[in-house]
Fold each of these.
Amino acid sequence: MAFHTQQLHFVLLPLMAQGHMIPMVDIGRLLARRGVSVTIITTPLNAIRFEKVIGRDKQESGLKIQMIPVHFPGVEQGLPEGCENLDMLPSMNLGSKFFAAARKLQEPIEELLAVIKPQPSCIISDASFWWTNQIAQKFHIPRLVFHGICCFASLCIENLLKSEVFKNVKSDSERFAVPGLPNRIELTKPQLPGIVNASISGMKFMNDLMREAEMESYGMVVNSFEELENDYFQEFAKVKNKKVWCIGPVSMCNREPYDQAERGNRASIDDQSCLKWLGKWESNSVIYVCLGSLSRLSAAQMIELALGLEESQRPFIWAIRYKPDEFGKWLLEERFEERIKKRGILIHGWAPQVLILSQQAIGGFLTHCGWNSTLEGISCGVPLITWPMFGEQFLNEKMIVNVLRIGVSIGVEIPVKFGDEEKVGVLVKKNEIKAVIEGLMEQGEEAEERRERARKLGEMAKNAVEEEGSSYLNLTLLIQLVHFVLFPLMAPGHMIPMVDIGKLLAQCGIKITILTTAHNSKRFSKTIARATESGLQIQLLELHFPCTEAGLPDGCENLDMLPSLDMAGKFFVAISMIRQEVEQIIEKLTPKPNCLISDMGFPWTAQIAQKFHIPRIVFHGTCCFSLLCSHNIFASKILDTLNSDTEYFVVPGLPDRVEVTKAQVSGSMPNKNSNSAAMKDFRDQIREAERTSYGVVVNSFEELEPEYVKEYRKVKGEKVWCIGPVSLCNRDKLDMVERGKQNSIDEKSCLNWLDSQKPRCVVYASLGSLSRLDPSQLMELAFGLEESNRPFLWAFGGGGEKSTQLEKLISDNGFEERIKDRGLLIRGWAPQVLILSHQAVGGFLSHCGWNSTIEGISAGIPMVTWPQFAEQFCNEKLITEILKIGVSLGVSVPVKWGEEDKIGVLVKSEDVKKAVERLMDEGKEGEERRRRAKDLGEKANKAVDEGGSSYHSLTLLIQDVMRYSS
């Protein structure tokens, strides 16, 4: 198998608050260790806080992780200079200005993501950055939400918001149960998180935006582990109908002491001094106290806490991140630190919390119940004393005390809002603090059981992040994201647009695997290699094609390689023989595919999709007009009422009157024995497989055929995505040149010849890769082009006996010599999109294959139509009668593949001459036709641009598959 691998690139956008930034940086480091390229975007001062850790990961570990600072417009929004983190706000009254400044980051972040390499695959952003949904949609990548809380608290919030049970509560002291939980959890109204009760938070507008964005996001990342709260994890994922990945405890990615010491802000104590002090105490004897980076207790309450710790007679280490002036004065006057120096340490500022908690001396943790601190305590197997203050901390306390039963509540019932500390005053007295510490640290049966539960949870946490642990596996699943498998029919008209579709999806951050055979893989290897080099996640997987086993010549792996139509039946037999290998490959693919887009010619892929519980989306390779014609003709059984193959009838149920013959619409697959029982059975299989498939993807755009898109969606249950013209994904000249087979002409020679011609004067003629017209018929085409007296570029042939006969006729007639001043012949494959996009081309003589048709439309070029088989007569009707951008050569008899010699000459040189003259005529009719073609070309290009109909449809397709996967 030939693989092309691609670097995944995750962009992380944490809220500028320590409780959010620290775990997000840990998540980034975890992703980088799994081979993902990671970019963390934050503000300059916040970037400085983590530069040592990130720098060490890059330089010493070689991880692909970087932190990019963007200017924070705090001053512009009325914040003090340098105020770039919530813990730097002088007052919480400035909170709204802080979030207003954060909102202004959208534009610079978008500009950054537009140029950053490799192209981002995913955004993980804080829940409060609701606007990152718009960024993710712009770049066609999934956005994952990070809340920074656990599934228990998230489920409580979700159930409270949905039930609004708190609105019936009459007083602030009345307790009520949170509905829909596995355990009975009671709260009071003031203890609710601000996001639940807008009257509490005063931020209802932002809360609503956050929730709406969360509903639209792809999934959620949670810093927790499933074993800790499995019932709540399962229920939360169910009520959110989202992908939820528990990948924590993320703090455990910090295995080295220096990582633990430098996690977050710079520590206010030398880590070696801290460790030395802890090392002198017995196991489980020390109380660690830290009430978080945003907690604000009154000076009086701080004094009570200090005295309670002193009177407990237990060794303690207290990290004080907020110190009211009155409390600082008391410490000095009372010489508190001098009094407790034999068994206590005060850390004035940031403490290396994970380093401290991981020491065996720590036997208890007095915490504010912020989720980071809570989970860090759990990870270290330490029982907790709970002192919640605001946010979801009262919920976390319930989990610690009531659900996990590894903590003791200090008894706080009233939240202390940021800025209201002095108003609240003292809530917990020193004797209460002393009693709770003694209760936690005592040697009784209850305390021992609590310690044992905490110890077991600590072991579970460690196991969760080890290889094969639940969080390790969840991180693997998170990295996998969305994976589409594309399986095109081995024919140029099917493979080329499918590869384009793969590139379009990959440009949206989707991982793409294209299945094909070795020979066909070589045709697209350069294109795919260039796509991967540009940062796209796209690969080709090669299948063994059983040519000789099916009776085909060795190496005959594409319909355009068949020596005769007699081999077509064997070709489809060979296709049916690869089913088992396709199934085995899909089963082993990593990540597991979320969707299979397969050609209509592989009906058995519907069963494979069902086996792997993924949607199968059908690709026909034609437009909605032709698909609707085919559907209505089959559904109405109108063909059964006709007396002859040449009798014209009106296709039923169309917005326009369209007349065709039975011969023109019979047989959408090229087969000599098109009416055979085997062929009928095969068509029945195709129809049944399509009936059970999830939807249809169409290489068209809504503005081209709006009524037919609308009607076809009705008959297909709305799941029809028009995402074309897909050829327009080839903006680079090299992509245009190397699209499909290797060209039979040097592109420079071709372009030089076109450059020498006047604008819109050249007729480009190509009758498709599967056309096998009789050489005498092709000479009539040659003479007609010659007699039109227009410059022309004619692509034909490609090997075989008929090409040899044609070459002899051209040579014997002196044709090439006569037209050398105004004609260019391309023998074999031509860079068609490149040619059609050249300003010299003014007309396209085409067989009306849909790829050629849509490529001509995209270039804004009118056409001469010469349909031959399959749906080409329907496409001609669209071109000439509906869109009115083409001139028909008047062919009414289909030339079935393999029966060209029987038909002989249908089109004379005079017919070609007249049609070309009419097409290129500069009179009113010709000008009007050119105007319509030009207008459609402009609409085609707008459709695929950002905000266009096909751009939007591709987004909807991806979102639909994401929802299905969820």
Amino acid sequence: MEEHRRYCSQLFVLLVLFIISLYVVPMSGKNDSGLIEVDVGVILDADHMVGKVSQTCISMALEDFYALNQNHSTTRIVLHKRDSKGDVVEAASAAIDLLKNVQVQAILGPQRSSQAEFVIDIGNKMQVPIISQATSPSLSLADNPYFIRGAQKSSSQVESLTAIVQAFGWREVVLIYEDTDYGRGVVPFLTDSFQGINTQIRRRSVFSLSASDDYILQELYKLMTMQTRVFVVHMLPFLASRFFTKVKQAEMMNTGYVWIITDGLTSLLDYMDPTVINSMQGVIGVKPYVPKSSQLENFKVRWKKRFRQENPDVDIFEMNVFGLWAYDSATALAMAVGRSGIGVSKFKKPIAKENLTDLAAIGISEMGPRLLQSLQNIEFYGLSGKFHLLNGQLQPSSFQIVNVIGKGDREIGFWTRKYGISKNLSFSSSKSYSTNKDDLGAIIWPGESNVVPKGWEMPTGEAKLRVGVPVKGGFMEFVSVERDSQTNAVIANGFCIDVFKEVMDHYLPYAVSYEFLPFETPDGESAGSYDDLVYQIFLGNYDAVVGDITIVSNRSGFVDFTLPYTESGVAMVVPFEDDDRKNAWIFMKPLNSDLWLTTGVFFVFTGFVVWAFEHRVNEEFRGPPSKQVGMIFWFSFSTLVFAHKEKLISNLSRFVVIVWVFVVLVLTSSYTASLTSMLTVQKLKPSVTDIRDLIQSKEYVGYQQGSFVEGLLKNKAFDTSKFKNYSTFEQYDEALSKGSKNGGVAAIIDELPYIRLFLSNHKYCAKYTMVGPIYKTAGFGFVWIYLQAFPKGSPLVPDVSRAVLNVTEQNVMTRIEEEWLGKRATCAEQDGARVTSDSLTLDSFKGLFIVAAVASFSALILFLSIFLYENWDTLASNDSSIREKLIAMAKTFDEEKDNSSDASKRKPPTGEGMAMPAGATANCPQSPASDSQLAEWIFLHNEGLSTTETSTPIHETIEIVESNEER
């Protein structure tokens, strides 16, 4: 009994120890108080004011949260802080250190977009949530599943900025931003939003963080020459401080100017130097609205005291929205940790530990996915207002519109997504979206003006741009020059001139005064070629040239050209030729020469293959050589009209013929359809389709007088004695009508704009057609029509080029074209004059011929294999030479093969008197030659027939089948 009690006591102790071990192991990460500690990293810039403020806010957020939830919370976040030092590499190194050495379950920060991008990539690999206040829209949540944006992305403010511009009716703005991820990220959104209200971004000025003060002043002076006076600035305080100081120095913070700043700068105005604020008087800005509350005011008091203790060397003690977002982000993380039921967890190491990088060797967080799920969609009211994370993105709130006055900013209104601009956030149920400027409070504009700037001004004092124009004797639709009879003033007209005026007067982002100067001699004639005209820019006689100027390589060496505004290329104008239906050989045209030749070869080849299969077994394919050759050609070509009547015995022949007949069916159907089209439908065709034909036939060709086409033709080995130049469309018509043999030309070679204009006339479009373009512009550089040529390196070139693009994309270009060049003629002749070949080509039937070839060759290979197998004894014989073997094989192939179908069905007679032992079959001949031999063989073997039992004779019926099966 005592022994039994001792055994039960030991068993109980073991059971208790087992239960304790189960309890202790998962709780090994707990502290003495029994709370589970969750390691969380913090990566902030300790030297930056935003980083200092956020660091204090994060610590206070966790203290406040656990103080309010100490009776319900079983977990507690332990912070591990790292300094990013304002550097991308330092931020990434800090993240790796936290993940590798601390194994944190989440990371708060960094706040700069450039730093966050790398840290987020690391978090995605380790499956650790990264809660950052990076605002750049380029950081996509869809591409980064473990990224939680605890701030409003910068693109959320775009609509509020657009509403301000729309409220004051400004139609042109200049966008100024820093050359960083933060600066570039919002540009596409601003562009689209301004375009939606028909406001154009006239210029984009990008400034590097390392831009010198001289460079900033230089760019500002360029902006001063523009008509636009509305500037939207998207910068952070570091660069904005120097920029606005130079704006004040350049006297651009005066009456008439409008400066609008984005939320990243507006939210941090309190941290800027008072001298910078003084240079920003009259600036308008937007920033996220933070609702006032007693909780926020109490926190600010506690925060200032705490911040002063932690940063005794800092004089500025002002809270900003980024600090409030950091506070609420830390609170959200603490709530998510409590809700997810996260326990002590380490990283799951990879199985293969050899040749792994430090990053890969860290492993994957086991609790990361669960924590992310609890964190992605969370909502509560925090210090910054309604803190709502939806799919990991903080949802935008209202925006506050402020005016920089005195030592800081003054509230002038609000913007909400639902109601637009308003003076306050108290809305009636009947209010709709509004962009009325009267809904804003009083604004003090730059220069201490109360008058709303109109947004543009006409610059004065610039010298006029000297614009040279060519003097021409023809083609006046493009450019013409006249002089006023009374004032002798130059009057320039034409398509090119109107496009130039449209670009300079309405689409250039600044005003440029100009005057036209004709390139002429004292008696009013042209002073030279277009090369001479363009060269005047290099000599300094003109500032620009306007006209139908074409770029060629020798010009581009000393001048720059703007973008083209018309279609480019060189083409030929040729007369229509007579109808082909009068041609006696038109029946040959449905198929081109390659297709005719290929079809003939396949006819002969197919006939040969069928003859090879049928020669030994079919009497119709035997006989004298002349008859067999004739049969090859007869049978194959008779399939063309499906008139072949020869009976085919070989299955291989039938297979080949079936495939070939299908090919012939498709060919004949296509031939019939093409020939019918040629004979019944009249098709106008150009007399010349290839410029090489003109060179070989040494025909006369024409070109526009003074055009670069002359040099082009010389480079193409044309005989210069065959050149003729013309200056009017009437001369074009006369020369083409006469033809090359009657004192005219066979073709006119010119640029597309002139040819389009020529064929737009109903008088010409019925007689001539265009062939080409015969030359493309890429690689040549001499066929594009350009608006004007500016001196090489001129800053006007990119601006005018962009303006040209704007003009070509607007309906105004269509209006100018119709005014000077007219609408294109709708000639039925032009629609029927497509420069294409009427003949069917081999490419269209390659598939059919491949199928026929594969079928024939496959059958031929199978036939040869069977034939060689049947005559292998002859080939394997050692008594004959190779020549003798080949002769023997040829004789065998030429011999007729018995193909009697009756022989294969014959059976030896059976009866009572014929019995054979089973073993006798071993001596049975495999191919008895005849019935008599079969009978003799049976008789001889019956003589020796015996049985094992006399009363039970064994009868075996032996069926001998002569097989003539074709192999």
Amino acid sequence: MPRKLPFRVIHASGQDESYRASELNYHSPLTKGWQASRYCLYPQDIVLQLDQRCRLRKIQILSHQYLIATKIEFFVGDVPEDMSPNLENARYTRLGYVSLSDNEKTGFKARELKSVHVDAVGLYLKLNIHKNHINKYNIYNQVGIIAINVIGETLKGPSDFMDPEYYLDPDRKGQLDDLGLDTYNKPDYISPLDDLAFDMYQDPEIAGIIRKLEKKKQEAVLQERFDYAKRLKSAITELQKVGEKLGKYEVEKRQAVENEDYDKAKLKKVQMDEYRLQVYRDLNLADLLETTGSRHPQVIDLEPIRQATPPRLLELTPRSPIQRSPPRTPPPRTPYDERPLPALKSKDTPRELPSTPPPRTSYDERPLPVKPPAVPDEEPEPAETAVGITGEPEPLTEKDLREASAAIDVFGEQLVSKAYSKTWSYREDALLAVYKQMQDLPATAPKDEAKSMMRASIFLVKKAIDDKVYAVFKAGLHLLKMILTEYVPKHKIQKQDTVWAVERSMQNLLHKSGDTAVRNRDDAKNFVLEMARYPEVKPTNCVPHEAVKPMKNSVAPRLGQSRCEIVEMLYKDLGIKTNSGLNIDNMMQFCVAALSHHAGEVRDGSERIIKALYKEDRQAVKDYLPADDDKTRKITLYRQLFEYFDKVDGKPSKADVRKKRSDEETKKQAEIEALQKQLQSLKDMASGKQDAKTNQSKPSNKPVAKKPVDENLLKADKNKKKNEPPKKSKIINKKPTADDDDTSVYNMDNICIFCGERNESFIEEGLDLHYWKHCPMLKRCTNCKQVVEIATYTDHLLNECEAKNNYSKCNRCTEAIPKSEYDQHVSEKSCNAAKSSSNHCPLCHQNVSSGEDGWKNHLMGKDGCKQNPRRLLSLNKNPSTGGTSKNKPKATGKNKKTPR
């Protein structure tokens, strides 16, 4: 008869680190299954090796809900008889393939189970898995298989592969092992217990019991014990429901463990244990699982199955023969899920069945348990039993007795011995017992008793905080929180005792903040911050005082980093107010000590705190640091700090100053060369060396300069060669006429061709300096620093400037407006509209008389442009001139040019 065949995965072409192919070897509700590696190449191969040569009858594949392959091909492999049975010698035969749905209709929540009926013989089964279906959840293009099941028959040799009629021969009925009466005439019958769906949704322990009951049922049918077989059938039906429910609980428990919700996980474990035990009692498995003709129950050795919770051995005790009692009416029944949970029992407590089984009732309809009346002569249970402390831990050593003498006087040696036990569950239960006793202590208890109990509990809390087991550590934090938030105000503990409790526990918490486990570090740091906010602790300021105590350079880097993070969090939360416990003095003392630590992460944390404190009080912070000089700035750490201080103060850093000087020197050299070239160009044009075409063209650019240049630099470079062609400039070439009294005015030496000023110093450097700083007809461009004529400044910004792409022309005032302000400028319509018959000043935005004289009167006259800063300098030099210079002849005739 076909049955479930054991196998193991011996080859996989790829696998995700969290979902290995070995997961396919086991079936349970917690099986994660196999997943291909991210962005793998297809097809992927998986090879299964059976325990021995078998005849395969059925293959089942449970696919992932969204990591779905488009199709899976099946190959059966066998090894010739003359070769050794290994994977290299296998010869494969293709059986066919199955296609899988894309699962879009189910919202990618349901898993598809594919069952393929085959008839092949071999030792290996290979799956060829093709590329995945595309969906929004499968972002890494993976495929996944939750479980694989192989059903068939074991062949002991080649002759065992016979025709199915072999099983129909009545003479061979006695040779069939473990077969029920209904399977003799069904050689292809496959039990539902071998189906993949059974193992994937059943609790493994319940599944093992069901299989044993199924075997017992088949034996009962052969022995014609039909009443017993009927009871077994009913029990199997109910156990299947129970197994599915327990499987669901197991999944919920595993999810709670992954989320670190250990309270919920513990509750689920207790719920499963109680549910399982009650079902076993209700079904009376002692009678159902008898292995001999005797009615006495035997010990049931359940087959081990891989599971997160290890299989439990049902311990059955011998009892007297069954005594039938008259039928009675059962009380009202209440579902199990609505009954209250009993007190937590130790995991070591054996499961004992009652000596006389109760009447058979459905578990979900059983009555509520009734608390038995108290027996006067019965000795009451110890108080520890109520919170789950059972059993006897190892006795305390002499050293432990001396160390814990104060706690023993308060809580007793039995409880303290559990706190010192090597079993972590005992240590956790001891803290829970202390928690319970302190909560139950009435508020009217004597002050001395309450104080001594708190001091004894702090001793156990310190030990729990240093515990390596996370559950014990968390129990210690819960106990400390209860003491500081509930116990202290309830019993009105004095302030000095509260400070003592916080200071003692803070030492261990700060040490725990340097633990290797991330969650231990985070919980310790968060609890310190939380403890600083407690109403009974915050006024004492003991948490900040303990946190900012300077640490030694020998402190471990992880601990030092956590100390800095704790101080930083306290500073952000409490500030440096007068009543916060933090101030510049104690924090800077802590930070200065941390700055000398050998670990970089500790120094970085201290540096962050110092930078934050500098914004609070700059001078006080600098008082704790070395002097700001070149020697100190050679140290990288202090240089970075002082540069940050300069940035906060608005000062340029020394590196920026040096860079700026270097840039200025480079620019000065370039500017000097450019000015010399432009000066030579002006001389050439003034002497008439420029060709006629150049003289008649309209000038577009003026001498280029970017920075003011002093005379010493010009004199130093006055002999440089000028090889580049000169810039175009507005030159008015005049010929003398008879009306002129002095022909010397036509001498272009020592005269500015723009404003007409004559000066003996206007030779080379002097004239260049005049263009750059003093000429009222010129200005420097704010973008490219080129010296241009004011009359052509708008055209320069729109057509010639390096930043011309940043300007647009206003059609109303004809000025160049920055594009960032253009829309607002146009929409407001507040600009002064330009007139076609006049010029428009780009400085004061007023309309100016047309012609060159109009520009000169506006830019150089007494009542001229108020926005031209060079106008007043020109008037001070020539107070008698009203704007138009007498030193320069007026242009007439064809040679007169109007500025743009």
